[in-house]
Write a structure and sequence with these properties.
CATH superfamily of the largest domain: Regulatory protein AraC
Radius of gyration: 24 Å
Distance between the termini: 60 Å
Helix content: 40-55%
Number of domains: 2
Number of strands: 12
CATH class of the largest domain: Mainly Beta
Order of helices and strands: EHEEEEEEEEEEHEHHHHHHHHHH
Largest sheet: 5 strands, antiparallel
Shape: elongated
Strand order of the largest sheet: 2-11-5-8-12
Number of helices: 12
Structural class: alpha+beta
Length: about 300
């Protein structure tokens, strides 16, 4: 297996790409200054936002390859591995990368809220494709951060740099919302596959054998990262993926309650409820009446 290169610091990443380290915890790196190199896999110890400027296939998460288009943003969080197997060919990196260490944002609002930017755990094939106007906004944020880094560091520097990083990430939240809308047909297809997946799951013995399907399980079956899958379902249905699964469980439960040959306890066990009273309580919360009352109503 090919060795994964660990890149632990902003300074190490900057030096590897022939860029001056303007700050030990944050930098804007011009990737076109890097020497030609072969494909590789790297494990990053910091956050990175790559704005790619060429069409090239040098990125991969897990088993998923991604040929990104010009003007695509790719997000990497600490501990993630990105890259492809070395095929012996050389390529010239191009684009711009914002890299920042988590120590930079400690004690700031961004540090407290960084976990809400789910796209840092999206997979590469879930990257953000920018319009021309969106790309200009991202470049503007990069430019403001670079100018601040090139100025004399003072007591305001960290606040201004972190504020501009936060602004950039908030723009990305907006742009992802736009992308979810413009890819509505694709998303509807995923929602349909999700529905089919749940139907197949609950018509099998798997609920009794391995329990209810988790969000992570469903995302894996649909070749999506859990966070991207969860965000997509939320945008399409207004419910979290977990709420959607629970809603599906209740739909199945209502069908099973019609079968008077089964007791409520038997139905509860079939749906992986360890205690029948928990099933009855959940059923009443979602449906408005108890399972036995629902039988009488129908």
């Amino acid at each position: 297996m090919e060795k994964v290169i660990r890149i632990d610091s902003v300074g190490q990443f900057s030096a590897m790409n022939n860029n001056e380290t303007l700050h030990p915890l944050v930098n804007i790196v011009d990737l076109s200054k890097a020497d030609e190199r072969q494909n590789r896999k790297s494990n990053y110890g910091f956050y990175a936002v790559f704005l790619k400027e060429v069409k090239c296939g040098d990125l991969q998460y897990g088993c998923n390859y991604y040929d990104y288009e010009e003007g695509t943003l790719v997000f990497v969080g600490p501990g993630q591995v990105i890259g492809v197997e070395n095929n012996g060919e050389l390529y010239q990196p191009k684009g711009t990368a914002l890299v920042f260490h988590q120590d930079l944002i400690k004690g700031t609002s961004l540090g407290r809220n960084i976990g809400e930017y789910n796209f840092f755990s999206y997979e590469v094939h879930e990257a953000l494709h920018l319009s021309e106007s969106e790309r200009r906004l991202i470049y503007d944020c990069y430019s403001k951060i670079r100018r601040e880094l090139q100025s004399n560091i003072d007591k305001h520097s960290k606040t201004l740099i972190v504020s501009n990083i936060e602004l950039l990430l908030n723009y990305c939240v907006r742009f992802y919302d736009r992308q979810f809308i413009t890819r509505e047909n694709v998303n509807k297809g995923i929602l349909h596959k999700f529905e089919e997946l749940l139907n197949g799951y609950f018509s099998s013995e798997r609920p009794k054998e391995i329990g209810l399907p988790s969000v992570a399980y469903c995302a894996e079956q649909l070749n999506l990262s859990p966070n991207y899958f969860g965000d997509l379902i939320k945008k399409e249905t207004g419910k979290s993926a977990q709420e959607y699964i629970q809603m599906k469980v209740m739909d199945i439960a209502k069908e099973k309650v019609f079968d008077v040959s089964k007791t409520v306890s038997e139905i509860a066990y079939e749906l992986d409820y360890r205690y029948p009273q928990h099933f009855s309580r959940s059923f009443k919360q979602h449906v408005g009446v108890s399972p036995n009352e629902y039988r009488l109503l129908n």
